[in-house]
Amino acid sequence: MNGAELKQKLMAKAKEIGIDKIGFTTADPFIELRERLKESQDKGYASGFEEPDIEKRVRPEHSLPEAKSIIAIALAYPSKLKNPPRSEPGAYRGIFCRASWGEDYHHVLREKLTLLAAYLQELVPKARTQVMVDTGALSDRAVAERAGIGWSGKNTSIITEEFGSWVYLGEMITDVYLPPDTPATDGCGDCTICIDACPTGAIVQAGQLNAQACIAYLTQTKGFLAEAYRTKLGNRLYGCDTCQTVCPKNRKIHFDHQAAFQPDPEKVKPLLKPLLHMSNREFKEKYGQMSGSWRGKKPIQRNAIIALGHFKDQTAIPDLIELLMNDPRPVIRGTAAWALGRIGGQAAEEALRQAKGKEQAEEVLREIDKALDMAHAG
Ligand code: B12
Ligand code: SF4
Ligand code: SF4
């Protein structure tokens, strides 16, 4: 069977196993990406979550010797919640980004790619394959762009004609030759809506992100969140969708045919207060299947505290005092102090003063002092 015939068969199989979009490219090095990754590292824009070895990232043969082709796939995920529960005074809610709705996409895409790889091996028994989703060495976006899945938007997301940017990406490298597709071309034109809408100015120029300033990244950090960003976080518990929700290419785009990505509204828009006292076990049981739980419960709890401060939720004061006084984690005590300072009031101020008398950790004491100033000024 020649490459073109193989490709046709793979495309038909992909459809059968529920892959929404498939594209093909060569395993040639990603030359342009090399410069971009280098610049991102040099300027301190990288998140640190990506593979640090640039050569591994741009040369597919580092992942699979004698690589010849890459098969890129995309799966669409929903952008809207049916009957979303509403935040109400005293019962405020946080939000997980859409890429964390439903089952963890890593498993779902990997499973489909593994089925596709098995099929290729049926057709070409000597074929070798390497499957990747997010955590692999390659840039999933650079692969998708070159394989014609979608163009690289100014917000850095891959945007497909059919599903907008609400797609997960993954790929399979193989040593089998498959004719490449045409790379996607820019569809943003003069638009700059995402750049203007980004709350932290993290899109430093069209297509280039300073991940260190991106809320999606900041929600995943484990330490204290720099003060300047706390008020920008809003009620985000994990990730940030702003530069995608504002994008005109996503207007009216909502695909919920992938059963695995159906969100449970109570999980993706949970009440904030119950999150504060969750045990590790409860957290794992409730959120363990979501991709947004990969950093554990601490960042989510820290962000929940910030969200309560953002809403100035008076009814959260007793919970926040409890954390300030008794939580063993300095980041949680210090962030609770910040939230109490923001909410203000006599009970908050008194608790902060009391905590100041017994707190040992320098960084928490600094937060308490600032919070007392804030409570006083407010
Ligand atoms: C590290 C990482 C992050 C970091 C950094 C993101 C970033 N933009 O670099 C953080 C934590 C911030 C993040 C956030 C998100 N991520 Co993320 N992330 C990754 C990861 C693991 C590596 C990305 C990377 O290498 N970045 C470094 C840059 C330099 O590389 P790159 O983005 O791949 O480069 C492309 C473009 O950015 C562009 N580019 C880069 N530099 C420059 C410079 C110029 C001048 C120009 C014009 C273009 C350009 O060229 C490349 C080809 O398209 C990938 C998975 C993977 N292995 O690739 C997922 C991935 C990119 N993330 C994904 C998702 C869904 C998200 C979020 C939407 C989740 C959320 N809702 O919070 C946000 C989006 C934030 C944003 N504006 O990008 C999806 C993207 C799907 C899509 N449709 O594009 C991926 C592909 C995971 C997956 N397999 O589905 N992510
Ligand atoms: S994900 Fe949020 S913070 Fe990051 S670039 Fe987009 S709008 Fe800005
Ligand atoms: S908002 Fe505009 S510039 Fe940004 S990604 Fe969408 S189309 Fe491109």
Kindly list the characteristics that best describe this protein.
378 residues; alpha+beta; Leucine-rich Repeat Variant; 2 domains; 4-stranded antiparallel sheet; two-stranded parallel ribbon; 17 helices; 10 strands; binds cobalamin; binds iron/sulfur cluster
Biggest β-sheet: count, sense, barrel?
A: 4 strands, antiparallel
Helix-strand makeup class:
alpha+beta
How do the strands of the widest beta sheet line up side by side? 1-2-7-4
CATH architecture of the largest domain: Alpha Horseshoe
End-to-end separation in angstroms reads 74 Å
Share of helical residues: 40-55%
> Any ligands, ions or cofactors bound here, and which?
cobalamin, iron/sulfur cluster
CATH class term of the largest domain: Mainly Alpha
EC number: 1.17.99.6
Subcellular location: Cytoplasm
Organism: Laceyella putida
GO molecular function: epoxyqueuosine reductase activity
Q: How does this structure look, described?
A:
The protein is of the alpha+beta class and 378 residues long. The protein folds into 2 domains: 3-78 and 101-174, no CATH class; 193-252 and 264-377, Leucine-rich Repeat Variant (Alpha Horseshoe). 43% of the residues lie in helices and 11% in strands. It has 17 helices and 10 strands. It has helices at residues 3-16, 31-42, 54-58, 105-123, 140-146, 193-197, 215-218, 227-233, 242-245, 265-268, 273-276, 280-287, 297-311, 317-326, 330-343, 346-358, 362-377; strands at residues 21-26, 69-76, 95-96, 129-132, 151-152, 158-159, 167-174, 203-205, 208-209, 236-238. The strands form 4 sheets. A 4-stranded antiparallel β-sheet has the order 1-2-7-4, sandwiched between helices. Strands 3-10 form a two-stranded parallel ribbon. It has a two-stranded antiparallel sheet with strand order 5-6. Helix 13 packs parallel to helix 15, helix 14 (317-326) packs antiparallel against helix 15 and helix 14 packs parallel to helix 16 (346-358). The protein is elongated. The N and C termini lie far apart (74 Å). 45% of the residues are buried. The mean pLDDT is 97. It binds cobalamin and iron/sulfur cluster (2 copies). One of its GO terms (molecular function) is epoxyqueuosine reductase activity. Residues 179-208 form the 4Fe-4S ferredoxin-type domain.
